[in-house]
Design brief:
It is a single chain. This protein has 375 residues and is an alpha/beta fold. The protein contains eleven helices and 16 strands. It has two domains: 160 residues, Four Helix Bundle (Hemerythrin (Met), subunit A) (Up-down Bundle), CATH 1.20.120; 207 residues, Rossmann fold (3-Layer(aba) Sandwich). Strands 6-5-4-7-10-15-16 form a seven-stranded mixed beta sheet. A four-stranded mixed beta sheet has the order 11-8-9-14, with helices on one face. A three-stranded antiparallel beta sheet has the order 1-2-3, with helices on one face. Helix 4 runs antiparallel to helix 5 and helix 5 crosses helix 6. The two termini are 39 Å apart.
């Protein structure tokens, strides 16, 4: 099946509720910046690229919501009572100023702030908000209708661009995998973590598309089980051979010679090549180095943060203890025990064999090579 993690339908953003996969497949609908921010915060949508796309739509939705509000003050003759306002790409028939002046600007600033506070580690969130802000500023003198239209167009382009970039990365990454390769991945960096193709899993899809017979080893990825619930589900949908293991089996599998390569995604890469990804990635990287197994990170340029010097400067989100205490309604931890739940860890650049980007493979990434990427 084609996985559309996010889609524009009925003048709203719809996102797959990833909290209930694979038991239930369901889209939830969003119509404002605040609702999208809550969808990001509560893990309805997760994965750095997907979070960035969702945030872009959150900005556009807020402009649409503000435009649809009662004009205050009426800069043009007011709407007749009961006359509909069509919200969407055309935004017809209303041609007035909408919620004009300072009200619209204040509402938009609030939307940007709410979205920026949804999650701290994934840099794509802030990249997308900055890009949408630049668009907003470029059309700030136009009517709310025109602003909303332009922002929605930009959100559509960010979604389409993400898929194009992931396909390009996938093609580069597929060249690194031999026919018959057994590839370990951690967490979920697939279609569900992006606009629809995937970073790490996009490499696997592209390898299969190129005719290679690869197989995937997905670790369960405690505590939120993105590997067990999401990666395994995606690979089953694609009919790509996949084996699920617990997180503490990776070393055994490598020692037995059952892993040929590791490919993971990332939520932020520092300017020196340090990589922040789902908690547990660092341990996998250390094990890969011990067993001389290449460790690759699939990351679009939008995930590289040249404003963060090293991985020690990357903010690490600490999530609720309930995620470690148990899963959903089942708890297995002793009541009263102290719990830590950092959601990400940092893998030093020296453990990264290469970054897979839309501009090619960056082997042994460092500050000089990353600067050259952006030059």
């Amino acid at each position: 099946m084609k996985i559309e993690t996010l889609r524009w339908a009925h003048n709203k953003l719809e996102m797959i509720d990833q909290r209930i996969l694979p038991a239930t497949f369901e889209y939830l609908s969003y119509d404002s910046a605040a609702s999208v921010a809550e969808g990001i915060r509560s893990m309805v949508v997760r994965g750095a690229p997907a979070i960035g796309v969702a945030a872009a739509y959150g900005v556009a939705l807020e402009a649409l919501r503000l435009f649809a509000s009662k004009p205050i003050p009426p800069l043009t003759p007011p709407l007749k009572e009961g006359e509909p306002i069509a919200i969407g790409i055309s935004l017809a028939p209303f041609q007035g100023e909408g919620w004009g002046g300072d009200g619209f600007k204040t509402g938009m600033e609030t939307g940007f702030t709410v979205l920026s506070q949804s999650r701290p580690t994934a840099v794509n969130l802030f990249w997308a908000l900055q890009r949408m802000r630049k668009v907003w500023e470029s059309v700030a003198n136009q009517t709310p209708q025109q602003i909303a239209t332009r922002l929605l167009d930009e959100a559509h382009e960010i979604l389409a661009e993400d898929i194009r970039i992931n396909r390009t990365m996938g093609a580069f990454g597929a060249e690194l995998l031999a026919d018959g390769a057994r590839v370990l991945t951690h967490c979920n960096a697939g279609a569900l973590a992006t606009a629809g193709w995937g970073t790490a899993l996009g490499v696997f899809r592209s390898a299969v598309e190129a005719g290679k017979k690869i197989s995937v080893i997905a670790d369960e990825t405690r505590p939120f089980l993105q590997g067990a619930r999401l990666t395994a589900w995606e690979m089953v949908q694609e009919k790509i051979p996949v084996t699920l293991i617990t997180d503490n089996m990776s070393g055994y599998m490598m020692a037995q010679g059952e892993v040929d390569a590791v490919v993971v995604g990332t939520d932020r890469v520092a300017a020196n090549g340090d990589v922040a990804n789902k908690i547990g990635t660092y341990m996998v990287a250390v094990l890969a180095r011990r067993h001389n197994i290449p460790f690759y990170v699939a990351c679009p340029l939008s995930t590289i943060d040249m404003n963060i010097a090293t991985g020690t400067d990357i903010p690490i989100e600490e999530r609720s203890a309930d995620e470690v205490k148990g899963f959903r309604d089942t708890h297995w931890a002793a009541e009263g025990v102290k719990i830590r739940n950092p959601s990400f860890d940092v893998t030093p650049a020296e453990l990264v064999t290469g970054l897979i980007t839309e501009k090619g493979i960056i082997l042994q990434p460092d500050a000089k090579k990353l600067r050259k990427l952006f030059d």
